[in-house]
Design a protein that fits this description.
There is one protein chain. The N and C termini lie far apart (46 Å). Helix 1 runs antiparallel to helix 2. The mean pLDDT is 87. The protein is mainly alpha-helical and 95 residues long. The chain has a domain of 50 residues.
């Protein structure tokens, strides 16, 4: 039994295939900005909870605040670098 090798269908991503692609890019950019602002807010609230929990000898609140800060910082790193991550793994130059 002979198995045929996989063939390249010849489909490549392009930026002129859909109308409104620039509007979608602008919306995604605005969404990135909004989520980064939310991450900053979560870091501030988490840091306040961490500080108040530490001052009031409440390890539960201090731990939750610490975790909120770490998760928000990690999310901000992923959100801010998402364009470069996708470009790296897709090998597509994104303008």
């Amino acid at each position: 039994m002979y198995i045929h090798p996989l063939q390249d269908p010849g489909v490549t991503p392009n930026s002129n295939g859909l109308p409104g692609l620039s509007a979608i890019r602008q919306m995604v950019g605005a969404l990135q900005t909004m989520t980064l602002v939310v991450c900053v807010g979560v870091v501030v609230v988490g840091a306040a909870a961490w500080a108040l929990g530490s001052l009031n000898s409440s390890p539960h609140y201090a731990g939750k605040g610490k975790i909120a800060c770490l998760i928000a910082a990690g999310a901000a790193i992923l959100i801010a670098s998402s364009n470069k991550i996708v470009a790296f793994f897709s090998n597509i130059p994104i303008a």
